[in-house]
TrEMBL record:
<protein>
    <submittedName>
        <fullName>Motility protein</fullName>
    </submittedName>
</protein>
<dbReference type="InterPro" id="IPR025906">
    <property type="entry name" value="YjfB_motility"/>
</dbReference>
<dbReference type="Pfam" id="PF14070">
    <property type="entry name" value="YjfB_motility"/>
</dbReference>
């Protein structure tokens, strides 16, 4: 096997490793941001969200 082909294979492997490392760091940052946003949400909500139609009269004709 020629040296140039071995080096090309090593460069391709290194590029893949770097890409995976960058992707992993980006995902970790996104997860950390999402957790931080969830922690800043108000914990206590006195009034639950209203159901879109439950408890209302609906006029149905057959």
């Amino acid at each position: 096997m020629e040296i140039s082909s071995m080096m090309a294979a090593q460069v391709a492997s290194l590029q893949q490793t770097v890409q995976l490392s960058i992707l992993d760091k980006a995902m970790n940052m996104g997860t950390a941001t999402a957790v931080q946003m969830m922690e800043t949400l108000p914990q206590s909500q006195a009034v639950p969200a209203a159901h879109p139609y439950k408890g209302q009269s609906i006029d149905v004709q057959v």
